[in-house]
Write a structure and sequence with these properties.
It contains three helices and no strands. The chain is mainly α and 105 residues long. It has one domain.
């Protein structure tokens, strides 16, 4: 095992991802999802309310979303397209292998 992969009991693990899912996650990072340098990763504070809402939905609750300032429409469409592609690719891979192989967007 690589020395960097066992620091104070912390381990790095991998997940199977469709390339398009990996690309989507990388684009999130490029756009500032976690804007801090290595070793100081934190969630972008502007996303905290949305993430808290997500947690409530995942825990069985419901939320209302209000967009107070629209973002760049080209980037919004890009991200929507990347998410759709990620889901399509992940579903195609899982159907092809006949079982759930990896994380999808």
């Amino acid at each position: 095992m690589a020395e960097w992969n066992n620091v104070a009991g912390l381990r790095v693990v991998g997940h199977n991802l469709a390339q398009s899912t990996n690309d989507l996650l990388n684009r999130f990072e490029e756009l500032g999802f976690t804007p801090n340098a290595e070793g100081d990763m934190q969630l972008n504070p502007d996303l905290q309310t949305a993430v808290d809402a997500l947690f409530h939905v995942l825990a069985g609750g419901s939320v209302e979303v209000k967009i107070t300032q629209r973002g760049n429409p080209d980037i919004v469409r890009e991200l929507q397209g990347r998410l759709a592609q990620s889901q399509a690719d992940s579903n195609a891979i899982n159907k092809r292998v006949g079982f759930y192989l990896g994380v999808s967007g």
